[in-house]
Description:
The structure holds two protein chains of two kinds.
Chain A: E1 4-16, E2 28-31, E3 34-39, H1 41-49, H2 52-57, E4 64-66, H3 69-79, H4 84-96, E5 112-114, H5 116-132, H6 138-143, H7 151-156, E6 172-174, E7 177-179, E8 186-192, E9 207-225, H8 226-232, H9 237-253, H10 260-263, E10 269-277, H11 297-316, E11 322-327, H12 335-343
Antiparallel strand pairs in A: 1-9, 1-10, 2-3, 3-7, 4-5, 6-9, 7-9, 8-9, 10-11
Chain B: E1 2-13, E2 15-16, E3 23-24, E4 26-27, H1 32-43, H2 50-57, E5 60-68, E6 71-82, H3 93-97, E7 104-125, H4 133-141, E8 163-166, H5 170-173, H6 185-189, E9 194-199, E10 210-212, E11 217-220, E12 225-227, E13 231-237
Parallel strand pairs in B: 3-7
Antiparallel strand pairs in B: 1-7, 1-8, 2-4, 5-7, 5-9, 6-7, 9-13, 10-13, 11-12
Amino acid sequence: MTTFIQLHLLTSYPPANLNRDDLGRPKTARMGGVERLRVSSQSLKRHWRTSDLFQEAVAGHVGTRTKLLGKELFERFIEAGIKEKDAKAWASKIADVFGALKKGSVEIEQLAHIGPEERQAVDELAQRLVEENRGPEDDELKLLRKTPAAADVALFGRMLAAEPAFNVEAACQVAHAITVHPVVIEDDYFTAVDDLNTGEEDRGAAHIGETGFAAGLFYSYVCINRNQLVDNLSGDEALAERAIAALTEAAIKVAPSGKQNSFGSRAYASYVLAEKGSQQPRSLSVAFLKPVQGHDYEADAIKALVSQNERFDKSYGQCADSRYAINVATGEGSFDELLAFLKSD
Amino acid sequence: MDALVFQLYGPMASWGTPAVGEQRPSSDHPGRSALIGLLAAALGIRRDESAAQEALVGSVRFAVKQVAPGRIIRDFHTVQVPKRDKKARYATRKDEMALSGDRLNTIISRREYRCDGLWYIAVTLTGSSDWSLQDLEAALRRPRFTLYLGRKSCPLAVPLAPRIVQADGLRAALADAFPPMVDRQQRWLGLDGTVDYFWEGDAGDIPLQDTRFPEDDVVSRDRWQFRSRPEHHARIRED
Lengths: 345, 239
């Protein structure tokens, strides 16, 4: 049976413009008939997977970045007694799979990313070529990139229109983050002065502009299909655990980078509810269909979320097997325990 | 007739229509391909399993009761992609982004979403089905793959609550309302008591008003091929 891991997060951002539309204004959505702020799922995912935090958390499993694969193979072939001309041709053919080669060299032009399983496949292929004393076939080269163990690809998927065989179905679903309350987007009218303008001729601004901004308490939802993640990682359970922990940490701590220089609005989630089970996953956004409008958004939002969860269980039967929550305001729960909860089966 | 009924709601949904290029419009209600995809995902049939996909296409008919079509929003979405390079292969997104700026392009897509749409679905079996309604119900309760409302970024926000009902027609099958999601649901979803029915084949108890021909009948999931099919429609005031 498929295990789903669901994360429900409440994160409060001070005035910001985290994710912009084509006019540069913060993105919005309508829920419960009122306008809300929105951060698109694409934006969230991009910032999570390119964050240092995520990269470090799955380090060693995100593969090797190298230009020197061809050189290494060439030396290996020479050592095994292959003729120099063949060694060079075979090594370049294999290295070329991972990136265009420098002219007349076996070196890859730019740092190529090689996953652990790809590395293994290369080694096996090289071994076979030496044993059978022949060059690589086209089909053998194609196999090299079929099961990349890169954690980010396994989580977020990949679609290559030109080569459907390399597509990976994302194991992780990320919803657009939407505020639990209505927002009115304000305009910040700003001017920039020219430091070298002495003011002798005019004292006008060198630049004027307008930026839309708003503050909001966002509800975000992430659902990880654990079985699919393990499949995408060719059965590597340990790596799947690390990927789940890395994604969870990123979802809690990494803010979209939009206009951070102007607003400095980075924030950590203040409430996290994690659920595990094989039941049909569902987000808890209904909790905010009727917008939160009290004086204490955070407390009200947590209350609404918890009570929505109870109502779903009551109407439809237990919706998850087990749950764990971190509430920063009351000091309940901890990040380490959350990770332990996600791991245990 | 026996029918499997379930509900679909999410703060955002996107029911893609045939589209090429920058504009990715959404239909007001889930089409046949979306619902086939939902059942296939629940059953654990992969996109490239053509035989099972075809079997499913031949097994089921759908009826949709559109309680709320949802309000349209348009999302401006940019994606950075590397310049076309036949030789280059990028194992991760970070690989692609590591290219120098002049080798990256930005492509735009404008995506339509439906906010706060609510749909009730009825599934009936054709004469030749590899699955029983009980099989489908069980799969919806504990799906194999992640389910979504047209786009992966649009999760379901209520339990599907699938159940099998017996009725003389599709309207009766879909009449047993699901529990309201919130108090005063009418207000928060902006409902005005008018609902739309869309169905295939014979509805039994709904007077047909018009017939459309959407191109959303799955021919091949592999080749991304669809053909048009007749879809009947009626708009009815139900208070």
